[in-house]
């Protein structure tokens, strides 16, 4: 027997959750086959077979396991199953016919009730459960008019599939990641002097520049030109001007960083992940967009490694993609500040004494007041605002073209 033990996902991690088995009990697995996914408090990892043979589970999905625990055993004496010969493919016309028959034989289970064909079609189209419609036809048969009457009475299609009214409850164990996030959020509130300062940014110029360059940018670099690259470059320039925002407290010392490892918060099926752009201050726009895309895809697929999420000297989070107008983002410890971006909305603003409509984004900077003074935090956010509203300053290292030419 070959024992499969829980590996160590990284330093200081002692427990993991068994998220799912990717094979079934008794399956014959081959060496290096992925057999399970385990969740740590930072990432989801794949567990592979260390030998070939028949697998026997020693833990169930949802179990919390300690590093070193036996999660499965592989009977290496089991014989591999004989390979099945591939069946002859049916002619294309026959395959299409079979597919059509299968489709016709599998109606929506929710509407497979005593209803007329037209009534069934209406309920399918409007996502209405037959349990919510009173049938007036023979033997309670649901008619078209019954569906019309039910809709007119105010059935909400979003709740038509049984939402509400049952008084049922269910419990679900928190994942290691969610538990760790909860602990960290509480610790930030308790262990830092967190404050948030706000500002607004006129996105007109950067939107015009992006629209002008996005097609050529995509053609040249095979990646879209988004707002994240503009904000990331603006952040790295502002961090250069205000190094305390890029620093962190270590005991009785302040650690200053001569580089900007910028964390980009991304949403994933497992929750919020914060992969890190290493030395973002040295990246150009294309490199930033490519790296953000790569990391976002890995986060979506649960493939981010521990190394890709550790470290970081500053974080950017964009609640605007979900429609957020304003928020107070929470610092990602041990960092000292985080920038929150929000949605862009056309608002009436005063420019040169005239009321005009401009695309405005509210931004927020949450910071640890123990290390960053109010003047620094406000000035940092103003610097971001200046560069986004004058994007040429981003390109010329935080200065206008005129300042560069004059050597200012």
In short:
The protein has 408 residues and is of the alpha+beta class.
How does this model look, in words?
This protein is an alpha+beta fold and 408 residues long. The protein has 3 domains: 74 residues, OB fold (Dihydrolipoamide Acetyltransferase, E2P) (Beta Barrel), CATH 2.40.50.100; 46 residues, E3-binding domain (Dihydrolipoamide Transferase, Irregular); 226 residues, Chloramphenicol Acetyltransferase, CATH 3.30.559. Helices cover 31% and strands 24% of the residues. The chain is built from 11 helices and 19 strands. The strands form 5 sheets. Strands 9, 12, 15, 16, 17, 18 and 19 form a 7-stranded mixed β-sheet that branches. The protein has a 4-stranded antiparallel β-sheet with strand order 1-8-6-3, with no helix packed on it. It starts with a strand and ends with a helix.
* Overall average residue pLDDT: 83
Indicate the structural class: alpha+beta
Beta fraction: 15-25%
- Biggest sheet: strands, sense, closure? 7 strands, mixed
Could you say which overall geometry the principal axes of the C-alpha atoms support? globular
Taking all Cα atoms into account, the compactness measure Rg is 28 Å
Helix content: 25-40%
CATH class of the largest domain: Alpha Beta
Count of individual domains:
3
Number of strands: 19
Total of DSSP H or I helical runs spanning 4+ residues: 11
Query: Could you name the CATH topology of the largest domain?
Result: Chloramphenicol Acetyltransferase
Order of helices and strands: EEEEEEEEHHHHEHHEEEEEEHHEEEEHHH
Report low-confidence residues grouped into runs of 5 or more: 86-111
Superfamily (CATH H level) name of the largest domain: Chloramphenicol acetyltransferase-like domain
**CATH-scheme architecture of the largest domain:** 2-Layer Sandwich
How far from one another are the termini? 73 Å
């Amino acid at each position: 027997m070959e024992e499969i033990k829980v590996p160590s996902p990284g330093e200081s991690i002692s427990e993991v959750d068994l998220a799912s088995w990717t094979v079934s009990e008794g399956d014959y697995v081959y060496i290096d086959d992925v057999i399970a996914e385990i969740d740590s408090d930072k990432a989801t990892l794949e567990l592979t077979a260390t030998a070939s043979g028949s697998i026997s589970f020693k833990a169930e999905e949802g179990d919390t396991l300690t590093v070193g625990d036996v999660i499965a055993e592989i009977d290496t004496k089991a014989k591999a199953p004989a390979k099945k010969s591939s069946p002859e493919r049916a002619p294309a016309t026959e395959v299409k016919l079979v597919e059509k028959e299968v489709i016709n034989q599998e109606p929506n289970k929710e509407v497979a009730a005593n209803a007329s064909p037209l009534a069934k079609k209406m309920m399918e189209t409007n996502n209405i459960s037959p349990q919510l419609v009173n049938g007036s036809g023979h033997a309670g048969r649901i008619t078209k008019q019954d569906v019309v009457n039910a809709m007119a009475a105010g059935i909400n299609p979003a709740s038509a599939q049984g939402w509400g009214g049952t008084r049922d409850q269910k419990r679900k164990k928190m994942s290691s990641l969610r538990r760790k996030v909860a602990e960290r959020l509480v610790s930030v509130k308790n262990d830092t002097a967190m404050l948030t300062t706000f500002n607004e940014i006129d996105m007109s110029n950067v939107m015009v520049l992006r629209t002008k360059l996005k097609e050529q940018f995509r053609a040249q670099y095979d990646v879209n030109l988004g707002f994240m690259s503009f904000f990331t470059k603006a952040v790295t320039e502002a961090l250069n001007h205000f190094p305390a925002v890029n620093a962190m407290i270590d005991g009785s010392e302040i650690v200053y960083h001569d580089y900007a490892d910028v964390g980009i918060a991304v949403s994933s099926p497992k929750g919020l992940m914060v992969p890190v752009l290493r030395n973002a201050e040295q990246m150009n726009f294309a490199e930033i967009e490519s790296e953000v895309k790569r990391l976002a895809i890995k986060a979506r697929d649960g493939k981010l490694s521990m190394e890709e999420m550790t470290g970081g000297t500053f974080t950017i989070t964009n609640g605007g993609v979900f429609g957020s107008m304003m928020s107070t983002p929470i610092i990602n410890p041990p960092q000292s500040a985080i920038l929150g971006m929000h949605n862009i909305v056309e608002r009436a603003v005063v420019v040169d004494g005239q009321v005009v409509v401009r695309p405005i984004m509210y931004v927020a900077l949450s910071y640890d007041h123990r290390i960053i003074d109010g003047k620094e935090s406000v000035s940092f956010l103003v610097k971001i605002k200046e560069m986004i509203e004058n994007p040429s300053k981003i390109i010329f290292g935080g200065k206008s073209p005129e300042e560069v030419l004059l050597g200012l």
